[in-house]
Amino acid sequence: MFEPLLRANAAKFNCTQRYGVNVIHYEEYSDGVIVIVQDTTSKLCKKYKTQYLVACDGNRSPTRRKEKIEWKGAGILRNSLSIKFQADLTPFLGSRAVHGVVYVVNDNISGGFRLENKGKSGIVMVNSTKEKKDFPPGSVSLEEARRYAYECAGLTEETPIEIKSVAYWTMASYNAEKFVSPGGRVLLAGDAVHVMPPTGGLGGNTGINVRKMVSRRDNWLTETGSHNLSWKLAYVLKGWAAPSLLSTYSIERQPIDEFVVDQATRRFHNRVDHRQPPLPEAPDLSVEIGCRYTQGAFIPTEGQASNLPFEDPFTPTGSGGSRFPHIYLDRAGDANAQIEQQISTLDLIKQNFVLVATEKGSAWIQAARELQFALDACELHEDWQPYRDTSAKLRKNCKMENGQALLVQPDGFIAWRAIRVEAGQRRCFKVFWRKY
Predict the structure, then answer these.
(1) pLDDT at residue 221, rounded to an integer
(2) Superfamily assignment of 73-172 in CATH?
(3) 3-state secondary structure string across 119-137
């Protein structure tokens, strides 16, 4: 469902997509990377020269092995079994007949359902049975798989369940020690740098990392956007930043990925192994959208003592290295704006850095307009155009004072919390920007 959307939109950004080819070799040099690509049908090879190589080549990543980047973590947790099925379970699910996960534990089986098509198909995930706690490849017959599906569902043969396929896979918990090659021109992402149990559904969000997640009438909406590596690579390629900026990708993301892998593993032990007493878990929303950096390409906020890799997104700090918080903004001139006529503060973040102040006539905003650099600036208060923060919620949540401002990166993280400054001192922003 998702990948066709990515493919369709990639072309809008001058992205050339090639299928049926393998990268069979690459060599990193001081001025770029040589990549050898082979067509899987004709077997013809082509040689490319590129400035950087981004390897998203999965958990068995040959790139990671070539760069001698080590795995660390809990390791292999178990050999698991997944059974793809088709059956109409909607009469038994009621309001739960949606895309989602249902855990099941009874005397015969421990497992669960990952539902699709509103409860009319999906995957049965088997963790253990009376006879088995491990499922190496080829260890389960189709008839056994069918019996497992019925035992997990608690249904009789009167309800037809069709088994489509049986898959074996290894559940593991690993995190790469670093995400960048020693030469700095080969960068790894996705499953190449982390493998985690699916418990909690944290893997996809970690690989892409959500840029926006807001609540609209109790429905949680998720928008994936360009994230840590993407904006840094774009700025370096455009000549807007030094290549050294890319070194902060590993510095910032590796501890976050390690934290999320650990949280997914804790959820596995609690929900699948039923460990007692349960291991402590950080709140789901804090893990998914509350992550914060403790060092990297940002200016730490003075007095911010916490070294935790996350914060509660409902009580944001507005500090350097944390996410810019979501606040609804009303359309200016419409005091009775409905939710459909509102936007999130996160919608203000597109491709440029964004400078945000919360009072009229901010000296920081004036200084930003004098920069010879692509920088968006906005004063979020009750009279700003075209959107306004009528309740001053951003100011209250981030404890902003007059004369302060927030500088937000293109990935939605706060680069700097500006000190209080008067109108005559705004030249210091230009000095800071050159240093940054």
Answers:
(1) 28
(2) D-Amino Acid Oxidase, subunit A, domain 2 (3.30.9.10)
(3) HCEEEEEEEEECCCCCCCC
